[in-house]
Amino acid sequence: MSNAPHELLVVDDLSTTFTTMGGPLPAVANVSFTLARNETIGIVGESGSGKTVLSRTIMGLQPRSNVTVTGSVLLNGNQMVGASEAAKRALWGKEVAMVFQDPMTSLNPVMRVGKQIDESLRVRLGMNKHDAKARAIELFELVGIPSPAQRYMAYPGQLSGGMRQRVVIAIALAGSPNLLMADEPTTGLDVTIQAQILNLLDDLKERLEMSVVLVTHDLGVVATRTSRIVVMYAGRIVESGSTRDVFNHHRMPYTRALLDSSPKVSNASHTRLVTIPGRPPNLLKLTAGCSFAPRCTFATDKCHTERPELQAADEPEHAFACWNPLPTNTERGS
Amino acid sequence: MIRYVIRRILMLIGIVFIISVGSFYLIHLLPGNITTIIEGPGASPANQAKLYKLLGLDRPIYEQYFVWLGNVLHGNLGTSFISQESVASTIRAALPIDLEMIFISQILAFATAIPMAMRSARKPDGIVDRIFGAGSFTLLSVPPFIVIILLVLFISIKLGIPHTGVSTYVSFSSDWIANLESMALPSITLAIGSFVVYFRVLRSDLIATLQEEFITMARSKGISQRRIMWRHAFRPSSVALLGAAGVNIGGLLAGGFVVQFLLAIPGLGYTLIAAINQNDYLLVQGIVFVVSVGVVLINFIFDFIINIVDPRISRE
Ligand SMILES: Nc1ncnc2c1ncn2[C@@H]1O[C@H](COP(=O)(O)OP(=O)(O)O)[C@@H](O)[C@H]1O
Ligand code: SF4
Ligand SMILES: [Mg+2]
Q1: Is the pTM value of this prediction over 0.90?
Q2: Picking from A84-93, B11-20, B88-97, B140-149, which range would have the lowest pLDDT averaged per residue?
Q3: Residue A233 · residue A292 · CB < 8 Å
């Protein structure tokens, strides 16, 4: 069998297409990657590149109507594509859980946060009221919420963004999932809080022996926290490899553009960012060529008419999709 | 929250004060000699004199008001010169009929609107939603008197449940079966109007709420569809529903006379129309006052419930 037992997640040729008024919208196309146990993989791309749709499709959380999913997602041996809501529900929370991007909207505003975590513990794990409360407070403590017993009674609106995200993480951890999907877990937060939350996730991953899919638009976030990186553009993987190879030996111009637009760890936070010129393509009007071609300084005629497939680079597990790749031997000076 | 409630109560007292002034003044607005107006053209001079003194018409008007208010606060709304009965006791006899009618109609309306709205919102524009939507739209466009005629046809004649009117009306406590039989038609008529409003308001708010991120998050916890609907979507979606219910129930209390008149149910609305026909102005005044205060109270109560349901509102 191709999926060795140590692979927790095997995504194979996964595509998600929305049926919209403007026609079919391929938000995710032909994505394949694997994730080992206790590994963290980074999924990186500009806003709109399909990261959220991909992570939700992996979980089977896509909207119920107007969407077609093809390919395969094996999560600890369970096929998620085409699975019934009931079958997926049995895995949600226990096998896989998600930390959502915006803690301002991902918590129910009219339910006390204690109730929201209690739900996972009592309904999903069948704990009694007393044990569930004790466990909830324990989890709040684990994610670094001060005076957890008081916070247990709070409504989300009474907590800061960072605190809310800790609550969301505590809820995600309630069912001891093997896989944690973190979809831009810090994008809505202050810079200092961002680092705290990311470090917390790192720490929890080690302690609780989870695998993590860390989704971000900021390569800086994944630099030190992931073993491998998948770079997405217009719903496709355009480069993937070990974190070191993606940073130092990337071949795809888009990856370089992303790196140039990412705040460097060494730079002061007020450094002005270089943004990638142009806009991501309209997914309803994709051409036959490379979807990055309209913005690419290396584009040739071929780029506009024929799409480059992923091809192996020199390094193991490193692949890129580009007709005119950046040279290999020169390490990128910065 | 406490400050909010105090502010609301002060406002309530202010509004009730204005209503009391308005109700009191109602009679003084009528043209002509008040004693003739109140007692009718055939009043004897003796009675007129009695009334003149009773109303304290020789005294300044603000004094008259405070005398009247003092009586009202003691539950005394005067004695009708037409029926020689205490206005308060007439109202006390009629009001429970309104309340029962409203109560039954609201139970019926909520019990149908909530599950149907939930079913519709689960798949907007799905087949069930379309059927419910078309059905509610049809009900919306049929005027109440047609509804009543149709209901009389179906319930009373086809199903053989008799509809009793004023002369045979029995209270719930003396014969609840007969009481409910006579309440069925008016309650169902009122329920239909309420149902349409509640169904539409709740459906559209549920659809909006179900798009929210916290619903996806609730789904990702692996809890059931049913639980998501009731525990997560319903409460934040019910603010507009409760607002509509407050306005609607107030409207039923104030506007119950249409149904009551058509079906001869001796509630406040029916009594009001009879009082107007008989020039029983003290009774009219009493009913107007009680109904107005009732409407304000109902809105106050629903406002309060909304604040409990959605704690975001009073925090702002
Ligand atoms: N429910 C949906 N219906 C139609 N299009 C959608 C839907 N959800 C996302 N999309 C489209 O899919 C593309 C990818 O979106 P998303 O995954 O949110 O990007 P990212 O998370 O990388 O910012 C966008 O073009 C977005 O408009
Ligand atoms: S294939 Fe062409 S357009 Fe696309 S990234 Fe490579 S060089 Fe640029
Ligand atoms: Mg996203």
Answers
A1: no
A2: B140-149
A3: yes
